[in-house]
Task: inverse folding
């Protein structure tokens, strides 16, 4: 049934099929997705790789660098989803409650990121907090890829154009936030958003 639906929506729009790109899902399967979804899924895989590297890292300096990268990557990813993808999805998908749940999950993840960013590698609970963040993100990512994104594909949202917007905004934010040093930039972004409550 779901397959029929998605075939229908794919065939009525020329160009969408040709814009599809291969990307790995959370469960390791390779699938073809419209650009916006593929772009976000590539970011999901990239942050999962960093969490894996953290698990294997033994050196504190390496752990610190990985944590900085993870926090910055997650801050940028959450922001582009909240600015661009979630508002469009909330208007268009069958179950907009999924978007509200995703936004609340972002808020919880950001609280954990903010805690980690005030700590130092080796502090009590540091490794535990990074581990819990990775598990929390894995859960969130699975929900996006198995529920939210499939619903979004069945709408008229132009996911090719959205892909370009997401990529451009991500580049802009990365540049902006890297300018004053990754660690401070990412912390600033998360702190500003927590104060403004922008994510809820
Ligand atoms: Fe998300
Ligand atoms: Fe995501």
Result:
């Amino acid at each position: 049934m779901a397959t029929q639906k998605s075939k229908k929506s794919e065939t009525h729009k020329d160009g969408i099929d040709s814009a599809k790109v291969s990307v790995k899902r959370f469960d390791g399967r390779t699938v073809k997705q419209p650009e916006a979804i593929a772009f976000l899924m590539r970011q999901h895989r990239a942050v999962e790789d960093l969490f894996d590297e953290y698990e294997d890292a033994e050196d504190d300096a390496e752990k610190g660098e990985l944590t900085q990268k993870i926090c910055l990557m997650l801050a940028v990813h959450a922001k582009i989803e909240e600015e661009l993808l979630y508002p469009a999805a909330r208007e268009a998908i069958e179950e907009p409650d999924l978007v509200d749940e995703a936004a609340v999950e972002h808020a919880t993840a950001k609280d954990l990121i903010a805690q980690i960013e005030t700590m130092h590698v080796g502090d009590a609970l540091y490794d535990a907090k990074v581990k819990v963040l990775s598990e929390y993100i894995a859960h969130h990512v699975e929900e996006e890829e198995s529920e939210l994104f499939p619903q979004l594909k069945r709408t008229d949202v132009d996911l090719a154009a959205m892909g370009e917007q997401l990529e451009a905004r991500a580049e802009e934010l990365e540049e902006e936030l890297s300018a004053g040093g990754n660690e401070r930039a990412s912390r600033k972004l998360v702190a500003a958003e927590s104060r403004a409550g922008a994510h809820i």
Q: What stands out?
A: The radius of gyration is 17 Å.
